[in-house]
Each structure stands twice: as structure tokens, then as C-alpha cells.
Amino acid sequence: MVVLISYPEFYLNLIPSPLVILLEIGVLKMLTQPSLSPNSAQAYVGDHAALRLLHRVLMMYYQEGLNQADIAETFGLSTAKVNRLLKQAREQGIVEIRIRTPMQSLFDLEARLQSLCGVPEAVVVPQVSDDPQLVLEAVGRAAAQYLTQRLRDGDVVCVSGGKALSAVVRSVETSRRFDVQVVPATGGAQGRHQIDANYLASELAQKLGGTVHELHAPVIVDTAEERDALVGIRQISSVLDMARKAQIAVLGIGSVAPGTSTYFELPSLHEDDRRRLIEEFCGTGELLAQIVDPRGQPCAPDYNCRVVGIGLDDLRGIPLTIGVAATVTKVAPIISTLRGGYLKTLITDEVTARGVLEQWEQDPCQTARTE
């Protein structure tokens, strides 16, 4: 933090001036006068004494590190008077406070994401490497710390599957046990236990010292009828109800692009499905295995209706929804989820954050084509 203390040249030179500064009830007022009369000159000398006192108070507080009580005792003032002088100095522009931290550029990115994209909170992680896996691990550590700092006994936490969530769970470290319940937000990905929502929920619960409730169903089935039959089973519907009532949701933001999307690796999808999702439905992102378009709206009803899990609208009732994504392949998916308003917090890396900001104001369909 840098504190700059500056005075108008009038105060420094101590010479007569058309500007007379009067200190009335601690408030500096500037009055324009053509010249100084004897009475004004006497007032000027008195004002100089008051301004000198103000200067000493500022030096002692900001440079010498004394507290307000000590300053008040030194000059025989009340603590309230000292507080008022400090406040008025800031208001008059005599004191300017600048905060400079080693990662100020990251904090500026977070502020821009919040103001431009409308997400209530953003966490931007410094770029540690050009290796996508190392970047993902760094974002996962930040998300794990963010989660444990906000977790409270009695909370229900629901999680999605995916590589980002796997990185989060691997990074969770805590010195205490939490009395929490962890549930998957969707069904599982058979044969891919490292990114399976049930596996990740179980691992997270074990690390936190909580209890897991697994959802014994695939994340996506072949037909909407199969999905309806599964969610009608009491053991499955009760877990989904618990996920909907969670206090915290931790979600990976998925891409809809061959080679980078775990969604496309699900056994229920085929090559023609991948083509339709991109070309016919203009899908740009995936959240809770639901495909969304560039504006964040569900866009692939033939596929979304087959997902066993909570819905996108259910996220709006969860107090804290944390979206985790890393690398530039997630720029378009992040934009989609932010436009949909599904997240309370976004955690990503700085290169991806810059990409989101650069493309945010572009036409949504143009954004989708560039990814």
C-alpha cells in the first residue's frame, strides 16, 4: 500500500495568496478573495497552525505507524477528532491511498470479470506453465482452497464429474474434519472412474471427513423414457433431491469440441451425435452434462432430456455455485455458462480469463466459431 500526502503549493510556500483556506469545524473551505486584509492575515496564520497540526497527524498515522489514540494523547485531542481529521484529509485529496500487490494484474482481471460478465466472484490463478495439465492442477488447488474456506459443518456439497473436478478433489487438504454430506449432481461415467461423479464425491467426502451418497445410474442414457424411469426410483430421486438442496455446488465447465471434451467420451454418444451437437445445435459448452448454446441456453433437447441429474435451473436455488475451468479451450464454454447466469463464482487461469474478456463483447455465434 502506498500513501501519498500532498498539499497545494499555497500551504507549502506560506505566502499570501488570493486563496484563503479556512478550517471550520475541521472542514477545509476555499474562498476566493482579491487580497489579504490584516484580519485575513491573522486568520491565515491561525490556519497555518491548524494545517501544521493536520500535517503532523497525517505523518504520525501513515508514516510513523502510530494509532489514533496515541496521536490524540500527543496533541491533547479526542480520538474522534483525530479520526475526523484523517477522514477529511482523504476527502480533500490531501491523502491518496494506492494499493499495489505483486499480483495486482490478476485482481484487476477478477474485477473485470465481475463487472463485465456479471459473475459475483471470480478467482484468477497465475499462469504457472504452458503445460495444460499443470495449469489445470494450479486451478484445482485454488478451487480446493476456496471450497474448504467456505465449507461449514452441516453443509451438503454436490459435485459434477470431469477432469477439473478431479483436479479439485486431488488438491483438497484440511486439518479438520467437516460434518458434511457430499452427493453427485449427475449420474456416473462408466469405465472412467477418475472423472466419475460418484467416485469424486466419495473421494471428496473421505478427504473432508464427511458422508457420501452415491447416485447409481449413468450420467446419460439412450432415451428420455429410460431417464424418466431411473429418476422415478426412490433411491435415485432422493439423492437428486439432496443435490438440489445443497448449500454448495462445485462444477466443471465442459467444452463441446472433439479431443478436449470428456462429454464426447461417454459411451452413449457416437460420432453422429458429436456432429449434431456442434453443427445442428450450435453447442458451445456443457454444464451438468447439459449442452448450452453461446447465450447459455439449453440447446440440445434430444440429448439434455436423457441426462440423469439435476437441471441447470436447479443451480439457481443453490447458494454457492462454483465453476472450475482451465486453459483456452474453455473460453467459449465459460462465456456460455456466464451468460446463462448459472455460477456465483468462477475459478480459472489468467490466460483463459483474458480470453473470456476479449471475446465477451463479440457476437455469441462468432465466439462459438472461433473456438
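Second entry:
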Amino acid sequence: MSATPELAVRREGVERMGFFTDTTVCIGCKACEVACKQWNDLPSDGGELRAGGSYDHTGELSGSTWRHVRFVEAFEPSPATRADAAERLAARGGGQMPRIPAASGGAGPTLDELGGAASGVRSEEVPDLVGWAEENGGPDLGGDVDVAQAVADMDRWVFMSDVCKHCTNAGCLDACPTGAIIRTEFETVVIQADVCNGCGYCIPACPFGVVDRDQIDGRAGKCTLCYDRLEDGLEPACAKACPTDSIQFGRYEELVERAKGRVVELHERGVGGAYLYGAGDTGDDQIAGGLGAFFLLTLPPERFGLPARAEAPIQENVVPATIAAMGAGLLAAAGAAAAFLVRNPDRSRAHRRRRR
């Protein structure tokens, strides 16, 4: 259940502000990432395009990457893959990880050369896309391209600009022992770098994996929803830079109503799978009490690296932990009183006689 959050900063006439991200119009340009890093003076994640690498240089949110555009390939498994999976499940033989040999037959670049772009994949399994293109040709190499098929294949990709969710029930805020994480007058969640001691308690408390330590100074870092810009009445840098209005900023209640209208519009246009993630829910269906930065999705949330359910461990366990702590305290008090009476029976009797 969501509750009215406690604000560390108060100002008259200020309303809750937030982000609404519409993934159906995101083109994966990463302008939001660049704008975020420029405004907040964050280091680059590298921009070299290597054989076997990826356009997604950032890879994930981190202490120095507060915006990350996810590249999600949306395709259905082939009939052969489905049949193989069904056969293995029936035989209880387990599955297997796909092996991706180098397209050109070479060993491929090392993981160090890839800069982590293919983390978890052995070097010999990384395809050499440059070698493949040179071998098979292309528009500039005398080969032919099926334009219609290329345009159709564009629908296989969905992009989502991920960011801190600025939860109503923020686990990171509850876990912080120094008071470095606060809720501002805009009901956004901000980490005060000058108060953070780098303990890291906030990192596992976030159910979205947003918060992380900065590799340089060890302190926690994440999106502030451009708190310094909000104080001056400016739009956050990422939303300002978004060319398609995939990232929309504004008053939270207005954004929710606008997003609901967008879902209705998409349903009328035949996109029946469109839904809101993190907004418009009630009761136990709310995700972390409601997200200050919510999304319009067309695929299950897990495809975007988002949990279907999200509550911080400290919040899930707060009621039983409180009951257990109160019970332990009462037992301790009763034990102390009993020990006192047992050890001092004469004093107890004398006290009763004096009262008479």
C-alpha cells in the first residue's frame, strides 16, 4: 500500500513531478543518455564501435550512468526451437545456452577488446559482424538489400529509456543509515553526495537495480530527476533532449491521465498489448507504491529488465520484523523483572510490608 511520503524539503504550491516514458515512440537514439551525462558531468561509457560490439555502450544503469536505453529484440521463437524446448521439457533434460560461432570463422575479438559489450560470452562465440558484412556484401559493396524485409525487421526491436523510478515506497531511502537519501518537495528521491558514506545499503534495497556506487569515489549515485533544474523551473535534461517525446515530464497526476489516454489510443489502433507499468494501479497491485517515473510497455516487463512485482526487502519485512522486535523487547523486559524478583525475594517481601 502506498502512503503519503515524508518530505525532507517543503515548499508551498509545489506538486509532485515525474516522468512518463512511452516506449512505442522511442527510436533508441540515446540523446537522453548524452544529455544526462553532459548536464550532470558524468564520465563517458565509451563510444568505440568494434567488431562484435554493440551500439549499447552503457549496458546498464550504474553510479555514473543515470539513463540507459535498453535494446530489446522482440521476436517469436521458430517452430523448430519451440519443438526442441517442448521435447526437452517433456524429457526433463534441461535446456542449453545458444552457441554463436564467429560468422567469419575467426576467433573474434577478446572480451577486453569488446570493453564488456558481450559480457558473459566467450570470445570465440562473438560474431565478427564486420567480417560478415565484407564477405556477404552490402549496398556499398555491390550486394543487394531487401528493403521491404529490412523495414519489416525494424518492428523486431523495441527501445526503452530506463531510469530511476523515484518510487513512492523507496527502499533505498528506507535503508540509508546516514540520511543521505531524501525526498524533495517534488516527491523525487535524491542522493546527497556530500552526506553519503558509501556503505552500499541502498543498493540491495532497490528492487530495480538502479542504485550503484560510483567507481571513482565509492559513493552511491543515481538519477536526481535534475533536481537543480527543477528548482529553477527547467525541464530535466533527458526529456528536453528527447526528439520524439518518448520521455515526457510534468505534473505527476497529469502525466498519469495522459498515459491512460495513450493506452486507449493504442488499443483503438490495434496495439492490444499496450499497458502502463508503475502507474494507474490500486491496492496490492501497485508497484513500489507507485512509480514517479513510469512506462508504457507492449511486452512483459521482464523483457525490459523490469520485475513484475517490486517491493524493497526492508518494506516487505517491516511488519513481521516490527512484531518480532516488539515481542523480543517484551520478553526481555519480562525476563529482567522475573530475574530481579527471583534474586531478591526478601527485598520484595519487605517492600510489600512497607506498603501495608
